[in-house]
Amino acid sequence: MPRYGKVVVIKRNGTDGIIFPLTSTSCLFGRKTECDIRMRLPWVSNEHCKIDINENKEAVLTNLSTVNPTQLNGACFEQPVPLKHGDVLTIIDRSFRFEYPLQSTPIKRRSRSAKDETLQQVAEVELLHKQTSGAKSLDAS
């Protein structure tokens, strides 16, 4: 099952609470029982906001509430917004932090072309030749 990131509940005291892994391409917040993250507060809309994962595996936050708009990092927004790692979304007085998953692939090294490999080998042979001929001339004197 792919993991697209996670949503971390931020408790009122500022510590991390429950973690919701994002394993599907959509996560709906709201009061309805069908919501992925359900908030049973009367001022939360039935469908308050959602996070969608687009074709580039980027998370995009969309506000669905006109009465009590969702905030992103303390500001209201009207159009869908791409989320960055660590962004905080707030619904009424409840806050959540979005986190992308840790990269599990190692950092790729730049590979050398065949030409670069050949030039490197030639340079090593020339250096070795200079070192050995220099050593012979020192021995001769």
From TrEMBL:
Residues 27-77 form the FHA domain. One of its GO terms (biological process) is regulation of mitotic nuclear division. It comes from the Eukaryota. SUPFAM superfamilies: SMAD/FHA domain. Pfam families: FHA. InterPro entries: FHA_dom, SMAD_FHA_dom_sf. GO terms for cellular component: chromosome; nucleus. CDD domains: FHA_Ki67 (cd22673). PANTHER family: ANTIGEN KI-67-LIKE PROTEIN, PROLIFERATION MARKER PROTEIN KI-67. This is KI67 protein. It comes from Chaetops frenatus.
